[in-house]
Every structure is written in structure tokens, then in C-alpha cells.
């Protein structure tokens, strides 16, 4: 993935009256959120790149569709996460799961890295490695020994290189180095959680909905069935998803189906009819209409235009793993 392909914070989704945006908390979108990069799963950038342009202050906002990890190598400041202020320093790692209200004040010339991980890949990763929930699902500042930075630096450098997509198998290598970073963090993560405010009720509901959806999206469950399983009303689920994710529950399901469809089309040689069956469509024609509505292309055309070669080598960085 070339740096020039990425446009950060390119738009704001404004929620309906009475939602978070009414109290001044915008929902930022990046990359695939805005439709211009549907295939990304992770991004890495220099921490000072975005902070310098914003006067070293990032106002409170939420990210509905990805998690972020900020690793500080130089400088200091404060992180505000859902009403709690925490200081950070060199060696601090700031974790922001999806839907958490957060903002920052950085000292001038603070340096480090920002890792952004797309939700579908994040969900798949946590299903494969549930122990990483300790790292990836708790918002706040975590102080690590400076020696840990020395272990992280070579893996982050390799991840940055592979994300440029200049070599065969870059998607595979990117995931390998991302997992190496996660492993280092996991092995050195403080056992005691930092002081944080109780989770936002609607944010927690959306996270529970997404987690349950991961196990059931191929069955294409109704919103009513999902609400019942979550122990809430349909209205409560719709309100939470609309406020925290800017999408309806059905749109979140369609988003997940589309990500999986793209993964099948990019990584496998399965016929479109078989992919349709795998994703719970009763007819291949229904799947094709769904895909065209969401992407503007037929599944076959999308597969062709995205360079499928019958294997993993050469394909792009695809959400969902």
C-alpha cells in the first residue's frame, strides 16, 4: 500500500440529532470507510505526521470501524478516553478500541507510530488469538519499559516496508509482522489495567453485536433475532448502531458479508455460485445483485479487476484476514 493511496480523516459522518455528534464528538472515517480503499486491513504511519498538522491537539472523536494503537518513542502528553485523562511518555502505548470517545494533547515534536487495524480483520484476529483481547479491547495508556521499543522497532520497520505492497506476498508478510508486533506487546503488557471509565453502554452493545455477528453472518440472521439474542429491543440495537457506528444493524451485516465476499473472490478460485452458498444466499443471482448494489461491479468483474491469480501471491491487502 503506497503512502499516496491513503487519505486520512477525509470526511466526517454526522449523526442524527440526539446522538454523539450533537455533543461535539465527530465520527472520523478513513480508507475503506469512505469507499476509496475497500481492501485495506492495517495501516502504519508516523505519529507526528497527523499531530503536527493539527497543532498537536486531536479533539474528542470516535472511530466506528477500526482500532488504533499509538506507540510513543519521544515526547509526552495526555490522552482523554471517555472522560478519563491519562498521561503518556516515551514507552507508553495508547490503545483505542472501536467506538471509544478519545482525544489527545501532545507535547511539541512528540514522535512514535500509529497502527490502525480494520474491524473485520481485528475480529478475525481475536477469534484466532483470544488472548490478545487483553491488549486490543481495553482503552487507555499502558506504560512499557523502554527496552520493549528496541524490540518493536525492527518489526515495525518491516511492517512499513511490506505495506508498500512492492513485493510478491506482501499481504502475507504484512500480517506476519503485524502479529509479531502484537506478540511483543502481549508478552510485555502490564497485568493491571489502567484506570478507565466504564464502557459506554451503546458502544458495548455494538461490540457485542459485531462479535455475535462474526459467528452468524453466513446465516444472514434478522435484526429481530439478533436483538433477542443480545437481550435488547430492536429499537435499542438500531439506536446503538446508528449512534456509534453510523450504520443500521442490517448495514453492518451487509458490510461483513461484502468483506467476506471480497475475501473469497480475491483469495480463492471458488465459483461465484459456491461463494453465494457459503454466504447464505438462496440463489447466486441474489448474491450478484447484492454485490453489484454494494460495489457497482459484478463479482466476476470485481475478481478480474482486482487481479486474482489463483492463489495468495500478488493479491492485495484484504480485510477479513
From TrEMBL:
<dbReference type="Pfam" id="PF12833">
    <property type="entry name" value="HTH_18"/>
</dbReference>
<keyword id="KW-0804">Transcription</keyword>
<dbReference type="Pfam" id="PF02311">
    <property type="entry name" value="AraC_binding"/>
</dbReference>
<dbReference type="InterPro" id="IPR014710">
    <property type="entry name" value="RmlC-like_jellyroll"/>
</dbReference>
<dbReference type="InterPro" id="IPR009057">
    <property type="entry name" value="Homeodomain-like_sf"/>
</dbReference>
<dbReference type="InterPro" id="IPR018060">
    <property type="entry name" value="HTH_AraC"/>
</dbReference>
<dbReference type="GO" id="GO:0043565">
    <property type="term" value="F:sequence-specific DNA binding"/>
</dbReference>
<dbReference type="InterPro" id="IPR050204">
    <property type="entry name" value="AraC_XylS_family_regulators"/>
</dbReference>
<feature type="domain" description="HTH araC/xylS-type">
    <location>
        <begin position="207"/>
        <end position="305"/>
    </location>
</feature>
<keyword id="KW-0010">Activator</keyword>
<dbReference type="InterPro" id="IPR020449">
    <property type="entry name" value="Tscrpt_reg_AraC-type_HTH"/>
</dbReference>
<keyword id="KW-0805">Transcription regulation</keyword>
<protein>
    <submittedName>
        <fullName>Helix-turn-helix domain-containing protein</fullName>
    </submittedName>
</protein>
<dbReference type="InterPro" id="IPR037923">
    <property type="entry name" value="HTH-like"/>
</dbReference>
<dbReference type="InterPro" id="IPR003313">
    <property type="entry name" value="AraC-bd"/>
</dbReference>
<dbReference type="InterPro" id="IPR047264">
    <property type="entry name" value="Cupin_HpaA-like_N"/>
</dbReference>
<dbReference type="GO" id="GO:0003700">
    <property type="term" value="F:DNA-binding transcription factor activity"/>
</dbReference>
<keyword id="KW-0238">DNA-binding</keyword>
Amino acid at each position: 500500500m503506497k503512502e499516496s493511496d491513503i487519505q486520512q480523516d477525509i470526511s466526517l459522518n454526522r449523526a442524527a440529532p440526539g446522538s454523539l455528534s450533537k455533543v461535539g464528538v465527530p465520527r472520523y472515517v478513513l480508507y475503506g470507510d469512505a469507499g476509496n480503499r475497500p481492501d485495506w486491513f492495517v495501516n502504519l504511519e508516523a505519529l507526528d505526521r497527523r499531530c503536527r498538522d493539527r497543532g498537536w491537539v486531536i479533539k474528542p472523536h470516535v472511530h466506528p470501524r477500526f482500532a488504533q494503537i499509538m506507540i510513543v518513542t519521544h515526547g509526552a502528553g495526555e490522552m482523554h478516553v471517555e472522560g478519563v485523562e491519562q498521561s503518556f511518555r516515551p514507552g507508553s502505548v495508547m490503545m483505542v478500541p472501536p467506538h471509544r470517545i478519545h482525544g489527545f494533547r501532545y507535547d511539541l515534536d512528540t514522535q512514535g507510530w500509529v497502527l490502525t487495524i480494520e474491524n473485520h480483520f481485528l475480529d478475525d484476529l481475536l477469534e484466532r488469538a483470544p488472548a490478545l483481547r487483553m491488549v486490543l479491547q481495553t482503552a487507555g495508556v499502558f506504560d512499557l519499559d523502554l527496552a520493549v521499543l528496541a524490540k518493536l522497532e525492527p518489526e515495525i520497520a518491516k511492517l512499513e516496508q511490506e505495506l508498500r505492497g512492492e513485493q510478491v506476498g506482501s499481504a502475507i508478510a504484512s500480517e506476519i509482522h503485524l502479529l509479531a508486533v502484537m506478540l511483543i506487546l502481549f508478552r510485555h503488557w502490564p497485568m493491571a489495567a489502567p484506570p478507565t471509565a466504564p464502557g459506554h453502554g451503546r458502544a458495548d452493545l455494538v461490540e457485542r453485536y459485531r462479535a455475535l455477528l462474526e459467528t452468524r453472518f453466513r446465516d444472514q440472521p434478522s435484526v429481530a433475532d439478533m436483538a433477542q439474542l443480545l437481550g435488547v429491543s430492536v429499537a435499542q440495537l438500531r439506536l446503538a448502531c446508528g449512534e456509534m457506528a453510523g450504520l443500521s444493524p442490517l448495514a453492518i451485516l451487509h458490510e461483513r458479508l461484502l468483506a467476506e465476499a471480497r475475501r473469497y473472490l480475491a483469495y480463492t478460485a471458488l465459483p461465484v455460485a459456491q461463494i453465494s452458498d457459503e454466504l447464505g444466499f438462496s440463489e447466486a443471482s441474489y448474491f450478484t445483485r447484492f454485490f453489484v448494489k454494494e460495489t457497482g461491479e459484478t463479482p466476476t468483474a470485481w475478481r478480474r479487476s482486482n487481479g486474482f491469480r489463483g492463489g495468495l501471491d500478488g493479491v492485495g491487502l484484504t480485510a477479513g484476514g
